[in-house]
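Sample intake sheet
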Amino acid sequence: MCAVFLYSAFHDFYFRNIMQGCGYSFLPMMGGVAELFARMITALIAMKLVSFPLACFCDPAAWVGAALFTGFSWLSVKKKTPCFPAAGGYQFFQRSKMIPHFLPLC
């Protein structure tokens, strides 16, 4: 069952690493906090209902919660950071001499 939700875990790490690479550290950290809260809420509901299958769903729920948070955070970062063409050009790469290897993602 967890294999179905690995796609959301991939997106969580993907967006988190891109935001950290652009110099944003607070939002990826809060993605970890969102993951913790999603796991905690699912575990509390599983204890209340005494449901083992729901307890097994804690990890996928955490991945989905973190992926949603980091996905929406990524959209706000993409709008206001100059390192992506949609946000205003290549000034970030000219300034830091980085190779824009993730530009097709924009």
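Comment: The first helix runs from residue 6 to 21. The two ends are 31 Å apart (CA to CA).
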